Hints:
- The structure holds 3 protein chains of 3 kinds.
- By secondary structure, chain A is α+β, with helices and mostly antiparallel strands.
- Chain A contains 15 helices and 8 strands.
- Chain A has a single domain, classed as Cytochrome-c3 Hydrogenase, chain B (Orthogonal Bundle).
- Helices cover about 50% and strands about 15% of the residues of chain A.
- By secondary structure, chain C is an alpha+beta fold.
- Chain C has 2 domains: about 30 residues; about 90 residues, Alpha-Beta Plaits (2-Layer Sandwich), CATH 3.30.70.3270.
- Chain C is elongated and about 95 Å long.
- The chains are: A alpha+beta, B mainly alpha, C alpha+beta.
- Chains in contact: A-B, A-C, B-C.
- At the A-B interface, helix 4, helix 5, helix 7 and helix 14 of A face helix 6, helix 9 and helix 12 of B.
Amino acid sequence: MAVADEKFMQVSMGPQHPSTHGVLRLLVRTDGEVLSSVKPYIGYLHRGLEKIAERVTYPQFTPFTDRLDYLASMNCNLAYAMTVERLLGIEIPRRAQVIRVIMAELNRISSHLIAFGSLSSDMGAFTPFLFGIREREAINDLFEMVCGARLTFNYIRIGGVSQDLPEGFTDRTKEFLDYFPAKIREYNDLLSYNSIFIKRLADIAVIRPEDAFDYGITGPNLRASGIRWDLRRAEPYLVYNELDFDVPVGRGEMGTTGDAWDRYMMRIYEMEQSAKIVGQCLGMLAPGDHTAKVPRVLKPPVGEAYVRAENPRGELGFYLISDGSTKPYRLKIRTPSFANLSIVPKLGKGVMIADLIAIIGSLDIILPEIDR
Amino acid sequence: MIGLIGHVTSSLAHAGPLVRLLVTVVIMLVSAMVVLAVALLYEGAATYAERKVAGDIQARIGPNRVGPYGLLQFVADGVKLLIKEDIIPFYADRWLFIGAPYIVFTASFAAFVPLSYSEHVSVADLNVGVLYVVAISSVVSMAILMGAWGSNNKWSLFGGMRAVAQIISYEIPIVLSLLAAVILPASLDMKDIIVYQSGGLGIFRWLVFNNPFTFLSFFVYFIAAIAEVNRTPFDIPEAESEIVAGYHTEYTGMRFAFFFMAEYGDMFVVSAIATTLFLGGWQVPIIGGLSMPVWLREVLEVAVFFAKVFLLIYVMMWIRWTLPRLRVDQLMDLCWKYLTPIAFFNLVGASVWVLLLHGRGVYDLVAGLLIH
Amino acid sequence: MAGYFKRMFSSIKSIMAGMRVTIGYGVNPKTEVTQQYPEVRREPFDRFRGKLFVDINICTGCTACARICPVDAIVLKTVRDENKKLRPVVFDIDNAKCIYCGLCVEACPVDNCLYFEKKYEFSSYSREGLVSHFGLGEPKSAEKGPEDDRKEAVK
């Protein structure tokens, strides 16, 4: 450390810190409460998933995608399955597509509930976190009903989904959709429009649109900066182009467009939209196959495919190269949180320690996806 | 109880000075023990209540394993803390580190002394009671800084600095709002202040209803008091999600428990002050005017006093489990831009009221009008 | 000055909105959603992926499950018995390694041979305790000879 640094205090925030959302280490230099620089150190959760992919067969890798973004396993399954399907060139039955959309959107809601809850507990209000967990449990029940797991689903498979929807699923989902809007109103009363919460987040860590492009920010964080970019609309996959939903964008309701409050609020709005999508999809469920005819041993032709999908945290992309064998030659995963984290050093200059927590919380990063 | 000493010593007039001294010391020790025992019991109950209230608010049940309804949970917690390893960090400043919990604890309990629990039950009837409590509770800030500095931990240091800044700033609105109330009875003695509030069915002559300025003062005091005892939304000195555990990061076992108990002790003290100065202390509402045996009156008075205090403590818990936490600079904003000016305004207003109306409250004025 | 009071009142109003929500829960004991676990046990759904169970008597020893397992949690050794049928002598499932993905269950060609039980309480004090052994053991009558088609353990 240079002599000039002596007037700063160097603090290692993490990897064991209550609000770094996992094992993230932030090396911060502070002058009192004000940060002069933030440097994220990652890799504490590295498992070599991309390398593992080279030694397991295509279907065997699906459970590993659960462990990318464990709060949105369905979406990760979906993106991987779509990549392999593109390599194989299979068409998915319509019923499977609709089921996939239902699962992806339910998982989006449950993931955003955690984002909402963990940001609120970072801001010191613990009750909204537990309320978020409560609604998430209802969604987990639905998932358990469908596939038997509550966290790592491994439900969306190459060619479709692993099992058809069980009896009673539609009614139970409708029940959930009926009471969910009231809960969102409750969250808004309790947290979103609370003046302390607004004061903590409004005008904090503004991501300007050009910065968002430069750093490759995607998902709700990008939309909070006022850019209407959602892969479900921009490059519709599955049945999204038949669905009626809005893509909310940040408007700077409480401060500047692209501030932490906008990023937080995007998730609340998206939950409403996802609930709407699930409701429409339930009506679109027609009898049919839940999976396409897929050979028992998958040997995709030599070639490559890149497929991206809109995950709760942004664009998840799988780049897959096949050498014609049963195992991928190379898999590269483009994870949204990694790109979203990269802007933290820029945002974290000159803010206070408490704001850094708000930045990390509002970006809604998830570590297993960053380190993979 | 000190009053007892007078009685006993005068009845021991014929005994030698040594005996009288001995008796005095014994009575003092016994009364100290009684207060300590009651306070510890209260603290146990308060920790239990805190968790139960949190459970209620968060749609959970809360502790329910140890004893009926989990009532003995605090005993289990206490035993756990007692048998935990006592860790003193290698690089800690041993004397500061060891000394801090004792000072916090002592200061917190010393504040129990001048409280008037009923007409005849009090430890010491100090004629500067209010001043004494305000003074002694400031000692806590010094002890917190001692512990924070002595821990030799950066998070502790953040916490300690925040605590001192916060506690000292919030002393000002506290004292100003207390003054607005104290000028009416023109006494700093707790008992005198409560006696002043008698009449009016035991409710309407409370100082909080005396005039609009004392009414506002009560709220200013209460908000500032929450900050004084470092509770959410003003819990920045120990903000868990930001600075791990603030000034008590390095403390374990009983040393931690001392900080913990001091917080609940402080909660009681500030609520008791609010009760005494604004809410009529132990004045029994409605049936207070009836004639009844002295013992019954005493019991009722103690019950009423504790009921009011616990109501205020409940409100503090309710606030804690609802609101997010303020940032450190916003906390100062609230103190210097809102609470302090309002408290000044109240003080001036209350003084003018006293000057013009000779201390007659709204109730007296209305009653006077009705009679004429 | 007007803004000052306006800000103050809007803050108080928003805080009151939040306080109203929490007190609604605080005073209403019927809102609790948690279950008291040891007394109240939640019945999992039919498809629940709990502990893996093998009906070893109908197992054909095809090793499809061991081959599909992405984490090598299944160790399966088979020998040919006197009727030239494969006999699973060792069938160990390491529940600590298992990720409960369900690929093996789907790979199993025999109905109701390998499936998930609804059991979710099987903690153990040792790693060995987490391994379930289903194997039939070495056949007593079978004589070992060089002609024994003994498959290597699928790793």
